[in-house]
């Protein structure tokens, strides 16, 4: 796992446009799982377009600090749905 926020951003930049699955802390011992495509990375956050069949809203964003503190776990897949990386 990357050690700095800049390392996390660089590793996500390499996977723009790829399919991923998120596992996030939803609070009060709840875990939220979402799937979508990594669309954009900004200075402090990254944006994911969610699958519309499973979610009632289109996009979600998380900060790189969420990944660093392990509040969000990301699994990245290639075009053939093979697991490429886990962040």
From TrEMBL:
Top-level taxonomic group: Bacteria
Listed name of the protein: Biofilm formation stimulator Veg
Organism per entry: Chryseomicrobium palamuruense
């Amino acid at each position: 796992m990357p050690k700095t926020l800049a390392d996390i951003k660089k590793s996500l930049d390499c996977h723009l446009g790829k399919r991923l699955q998120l596992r996030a802390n939803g609070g009060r011992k709840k875990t939220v799982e979402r799937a979508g495509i990594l669309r954009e990375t900004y200075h402090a956050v990254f944006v994911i377009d969610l699958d519309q069949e499973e979610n009632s809203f289109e996009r979600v964003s998380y900060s790189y600090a969420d990944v660093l503190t392990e509040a969000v776990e990301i699994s990245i897949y290639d075009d053939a749905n093979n697991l490429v990386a886990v962040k």
